[in-house]
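Good morning,

Attaching, inline, the backbone tokens for the sequence recovery test we're adding to the shared suite. The designed sequence is right after.
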């Protein structure tokens, strides 16, 4: 019989499916940024209990080694209760770190109770010939009061000593009824808080003082200039239009439902300011590579040419020309407004998380600029602070609940006639 040919069938191996990238959830991105920001305050502090600078926190990392920012310490003292509540550290660990920090603050050089802006981390002494700062001292004090209230007992007593030592009237220009911004022993007082900015906490702390109270006049004296962006609602804006100015006081003070005697609700004001920033970024999407609906919130930050305090968005100044835009975006800008525009802030966070070069050991790096292909090398304490505190408030009003029960804060609001 003739041989019958048979076909040999070679099995084709089934290709192994490539893993599908799982898009990040907003919960995972928030967890990433909160833990990273907390770790900055926990790890970049002087932890030597025998050091006169115990508890002082770096201004930035990895830049400026050895230099602490007194404002970063204020954010850090607020971070520790957050860390306890989130389970990052134990209550005892938080207590001990806050305790050594308050001891350091009690022993540091002060001028009428106010602190120098930048200090040596090891010695606690003035660095860089920096100024005695009214606003940075205020940020510090918000953290001091938060830690004192949270941990209670001896820490609350120490917090009260630090707060009660501040001579608020000394920092006021009596002729204008305005707080000065700074004081230098070599030059005297500098600048005035004559326009709206981040200083609301300053008036509340001063008015609530048990030892050196200030009346409501400085609060009602600074310029309240209303303007709008596009078709948005008019709001009271800051000079450079930097978004942090609409956020910092709100990290501790919950102005929701509170209105002053001129009818201003500062929470609603920050909602409008944040919306203006978002709409500006959307409008600029075609002009720039970074700005857009997923990258918004212009504020003081590092940039391609170094730190720039003029970054902002309109409205600014009296003619919308005071701010600077070069396509640099700091993640803290949008994240710090998450209690004002949660959906838009979460949208931006999801975008930032997908940019590999923007992610670091302490969460998002300070800023980036796609037009310049530039990414910051540092994180900055105050920017990590505003993201951590605002994310904590977004989750469960943690910081607001602690601070809005403080007797001096409530008394300050009352004296300023800011009420529900």
């Amino acid at each position: 019989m003739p041989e019958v040919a048979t076909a040999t069938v070679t099995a084709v191996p089934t290709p192994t499916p490539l893993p599908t990238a799982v898009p990040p959830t907003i919960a995972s991105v928030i967890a990433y940024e909160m833990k990273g920001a907390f770790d900055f305050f926990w790890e970049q502090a002087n932890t030597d209990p025998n050091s006169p600078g115990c508890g002082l926190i770096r201004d930035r990392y990895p830049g400026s080694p050895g230099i602490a920012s007194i404002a970063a310490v204020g954010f850090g003292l607020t971070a520790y209760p957050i860390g306890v509540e989130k389970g990052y550290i134990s209550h005892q660990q938080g207590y001990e770190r806050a305790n050594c920090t308050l001891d350091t603050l009690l022993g540091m050089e002060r001028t009428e109770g106010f602190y120098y802006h930048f200090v040596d981390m090891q010695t606690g002494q003035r660095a860089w010939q920096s100024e005695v700062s009214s606003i940075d001292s205020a940020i510090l004090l918000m953290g001091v009061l938060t830690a004192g209230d949270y941990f209670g007992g001896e820490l609350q007593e120490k917090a009260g000593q630090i707060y009660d030592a501040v001579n608020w009237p000394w920092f006021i220009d009596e002729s204008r009824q305005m707080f000065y911004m700074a004081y230098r022993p070599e030059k005297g007082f500098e600048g005035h808080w004559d326009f709206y900015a981040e200083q609301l906490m300053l008036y509340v702390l001063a008015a609530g003082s048990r030892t050196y109270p200030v009346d409501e006049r400085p609060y009602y004296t600074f310029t309240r200039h209303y303007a709008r962006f596009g078709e948005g609602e008019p709001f009271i804006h800051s000079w450079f239009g930097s978004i942090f100015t609409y956020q910092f006081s709100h990290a501790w003070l919950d102005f929701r439902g509170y209105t002053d005697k001129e009818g201003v609700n500062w929470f609603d004001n920050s909602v409008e300011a944040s919306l203006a920033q978002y709409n500006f970024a959307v409008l600029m999407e075609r002009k720039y590579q970074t700005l857009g609906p997923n990258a918004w919130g212009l504020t003081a930050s590092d940039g391609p040419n170094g730190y720039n305090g003029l970054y902002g968005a309109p409205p600014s100044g009296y003619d919308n020309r005071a701010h600077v835009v070069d396509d640099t975006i700091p993640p803290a800008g949008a994240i710090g407004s998450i209690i004002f525009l949660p959906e838009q802030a979460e949208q931006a966070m999801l975008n930032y998380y997908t940019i590999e070069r923007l992610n670091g050991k302490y969460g998002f790096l300070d800023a980036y600029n796609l037009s310049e292909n530039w990414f910051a090398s540092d994180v900055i304490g105050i920017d990590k602070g505003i993201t951590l505190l605002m994310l904590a408030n977004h989750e469960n009003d943690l910081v607001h609940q602690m601070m809005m029960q403080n007797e001096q804060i409530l008394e300050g609001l009352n004296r300023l006639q800011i009420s529900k």
